[in-house]
Amino acid sequence: MMLICIFTGIQQSYCQIGISPSRLFFEGKPGETVSQVLSLSNSGTRPFEFALSLKDWKRDSVGGKIYEVPGKFPHSNAKQVKLNESTIVINPGESKKVSVYMEIPKFSTDSTSTNSILYFTQTTAEPQKTENPAIGIKVAYEYGIQLFYTPYGTKTGDLEFQEFSYKEALSGKQKRQLIIKYKNTGNINKTAMLKIELTNQKTGEEIKITPHDLAIMPQDTQLVYIDLPENVTSGDYLIIAMLDSDSNPNHNNIKVAKKTIHVK
Question: Fewest beta carbons within 10 Å, which of 148, 157, 165, 237?
Fold first, then answer.
């Protein structure tokens, strides 16, 4: 049995291997070859060997990642990424730098941001001690580093609310859910924070829902499903939803949507 631990470039102390940053952003003129650097460190007591590979990825309708072979998706840059090595060994207590190169296309009429993902996959898994040795669990580590290229003059755009609804359904127990649909009008990948506040129209009580981190591809649309907390009692509520994006520092990036609902 093989257990694969997949991380997205975030350093995990208990995994002994650190790789940063988790995302690389490339910019350059047509025909140029540009580079970025990854930092690796091994805080453990044994060496690790990793195989390096590239894949395409995109997001589904609720923001989950879908992976494919390089060049499968239309806005892939995997075939433009070049590496000096296909495997890397990092010894105990060692730190290393890995250069990642990107060849900017000489001719392109598409100003949409492109992306791919660089995987560091451990090539030898170590047996892990368990209460039942017959299980034979082995743990391997896999790290994914997101790679983005943004052409000069790319349309930044905004995040915009498209739909905001509420439903109550019975499935074993009553489920109360907000459904938010939003769109990325720009040609670059965007990240945002979705914040939601409820105000009881009768008592004035305010309830804040734990913020949701969002990430969306260029010109894409996503749905977000949010369960109401158990402490939301029956009654009429004003709901304020805020999309706080960091993609355009030149103006206020907070978009607001309001809705009044009745909770049973």
Answer: 165
